Amino acid sequence: MQETTAPRRQSRLTPRPIRPSGWWFDGLLLAGFVALTVALANGLFYDVDNAVREWADAHRPDVAYAIGRGLNWLGSGGSLTTICALIAVSLAVRRQSIRPILPVIAAFLATGFAILPLKIWTERAAPNSKLPDRVEIFNDLPFGEYSQSYPSGHLVNTLVWYGVLALLLAPWLAPATRRWLRVTPPVIVFASTVYLNFHWLTDSVAGLLLGLLLDRLLARVPWDDVPLPPLPRGADRPGVFT
What is the pLDDT of residues 75-111, one digit of tens each? Predict the structure, then answer.
């Protein structure tokens, strides 16, 4: 018994390996997000955002719009949360452990506490809104659906939730499939969100930086070793994510 439990005590809360390894890349993502926000606050990139919006408006036939709306659903936070929650509960019942539910709870809290406060703080109108000076950030807008554009929640949700989905389905997915699941949906959502003028280009870039940062933080967590309060026998079964 001592030989089997000692390694788990030694590895407790040891971060899971990710690529690129180390915290330097996380620092770059955070610095990039802060730098972009400061640049927008000083009036930079507004011309680029407006140019992209005008191009999208001029090149969006009805068929392309319908396809874009369908593809953009891949970044729906509510749908992704529900799908991951259902899979996690199913795994929890199958493996008789609550641990599959932990990353879903963490992702829900991380996205909620990161996205909405930033949207409220930055007060940027969406490109398809009718509000004045919609491209500007920190614009003292009335709170509402069209004053919460920065950063793009669709991008953050896509990066975080598909990372959770890849983690939950890891035993059944080949490494190449997991990489496809983590990369392809964010690329599609980025393009469709900008093309439909749901978000400014810089909103989506900011969402990409923030989403990658949160995804990396969650990917580091050793979910099998997270301390839990006393639970019924079997509910804290280890080895769920190994």
Answer: 998 999 999 999 999 999 888 888 999 999 999 999 9
Burial degree of 148 (CB within 10 A; 0-12, 13-18, 19+): buried
* Inter-residue contact 162 to 186 (CB < 8 Å): yes
In whole angstroms, how large is the CA radius of gyration of the chain?
20
Residue of 153, 186, 187, 180 whose CA lies nearest to 166 = 180
235: enclosing H helix or E strand: none
Q: State the fold for domain 24-223.
A: Vanadium-containing Chloroperoxidase; domain 1 (1.20.144)
Instruction: Please report which helix (H) or strand (E) contains residue 136, including its range.
Output: none
| DSSP label of 135 | T
Domain boundaries, the chain: 24-223
